[in-house]
Amino acid sequence: MATLLIGVDTDNDAIKIHVPDANGEMNTECFVDNLAVYHQTTGMAASEARWRLDAAIDEAVRGHGRSAPEAGMRRLIERLLTNNLSQIDYVCVQHNGRYADIGHAERFINIGDGFDEVHLRNLAYFGHLYTIEEGAADMDVGIKIFSGLNVARGLPIPIAIHYRYDEQVPGSRERAVARCRQVKAAIETRYPTLAKEGLLYCGMTVQGKAPGSAQEAVMDINTKPHGHEVKA
């Protein structure tokens, strides 16, 4: 199974594709910046633009002394870059190159796994982590952002801690529930002043991996159960 790493600039929808080598190995420094390709190909004929796009892939690979990706992966990369050029052009024409809401206007911090139901741009500050220690820097940035957005106005920072579990694996749900509680405790320990002043609000949910699975609320161990909470 091959892996393809893609970064997205939500200010303008431009992507960066990190090109794997022939063995599927990744190097985060080896990438094609499609916004740069867009500017390079503006005004070119379609055939010339395709050549420039192909050359950008080759240049990224050669620049880091790596082998070229296998043929199927290269075709996928070319298609993704080509289609994204159209999206960048749309943003340039309709939004003068950048969406108006480029500042931080997120509504909550999402820790763990993302929500399939959430597809709005910049709705959440997302941190994919299993422990606070491994994502401390990202978490600190999120807290700093929301200290300006919420705490400065006397409002708590909303944090959604959400993990998926495999219904086919015994104990998977219980481990997801435990991870929610561990991460919540770690967040409150890392930001004790905010926690003490009631300026951290952590909601915890788990969800099966099967399509259409419902979100299940996770209660604190010392909280009196009500509703449809998950029991560890």
Structure in words:
The protein folds into two domains: 5-95, no CATH class; 108-230, Carboxysome Shell Carbonic Anhydrase, C-terminal domain (60s Ribosomal Protein L30, Chain: A), CATH 3.30.1330.140. The two termini are 34 Å apart. The model is unreliable at 225-232 (pLDDT under 50). With 232 residues, the protein is α/β, with parallel strands linked by helices. The chain is built from six helices and nine strands, in the order E-E-E-H-H-H-E-E-H-E-H-H-E-E-E. It has helices at 34-41, 46-63, 71-95, 136-149, 172-190, 192-196, and strands at 5-9, 14-18, 31-33, 108-112, 124-127, 157-165, 200-208, 215-218, 229-230. The protein has a six-stranded mixed sheet, with helices on one face. The chain has a three-stranded antiparallel sheet with strand order 1-2-3. The radius of gyration is 22 Å and the shape is globular.
